[in-house]
Specification:
Elements: E1 7-11, H1 15-27, E2 31-35, H2 38-42, E3 51-55, H3 63-73, E4 78-83, H4 88-97, E5 101-104, H5 109-117, H6 133-147, H7 152-159, H8 163-173
Parallel strand pairs: 1-2, 1-3, 3-4, 4-5
Length: 176
């Protein structure tokens, strides 16, 4: 690798997935750094960040915070957010923070590279088909939970639910 190669940062708490992505991108000519949490991202040294792939849900951290950190360090960085729990609410939040694109796992390397190059003027694609009431409920719960910084008790109060009821709903929406 040389200094002319684009620098890519992968923020992913699944070490195996992060290394698979890193190997694929290295094969395509990127200089790759991997971190698994916000603390590691904050101490990342080296060249400016050209691209970042950020997992939305990190163990104890939020990928939304990682977007803000990358954009603060390198405002021109192109960021793609990956998630296994896609929702319109989090996609909107991610793009407001500066993400270029938002992809739902599973995703392949070609999709990620295309997402880096997508035009900034393209609006978020909202599905045209009708969504079920359960899907709307899940997205709204995820939106309120994100607004409450992941605090389940506070989100439950805003939703008018008991904390345990909210936890049951969240378990129902989490894939096993």
């Amino acid at each position: 690798m040389n200094d002319a190669d684009p620098h890519l940062v992968i923020v992913e708490d699944d070490a195996r997935f992060a290394e698979t992505l890193a190997a694929e991108f290295r094969d395509r000519g990127y200089r790759v750094s991997t971190v698994e949490n916000l603390a590691q991202l904050a101490t990342l040294d080296g060249p400016s960040i050209d691209y970042a792939v950020i997992d939305l849900r990190l163990r104890q951290d939020s990928g939304l915070d990682a977007i803000a950190m990358v954009k603060e360090r390198d405002p021109e960085a192109r960021i793609v957010v990956l998630t296994g729990y896609g929702s319109i609410a989090t996609a909107v939040q991610a793009t407001k923070l500066g993400a270029a694109n938002y992809l739902t796992k599973p995703v392949d390397i070609d999709d990620i590279e295309r997402a880096f190059e997508d035009d900034d003027d393209q609006p978020i694609a909202v599905p045209e088909e009708f969504q079920s009431l359960a899907r709307h409920e899940r997205e709204y719960i995820e939106f309120v939970l994100a607004e409450c910084d992941g605090n389940i008790s506070r989100a439950a109060r805003r939703l008018g639910l008991h904390r345990q009821s909210l936890q049951r709903k969240l378990r129902k929406y989490t894939p096993r």
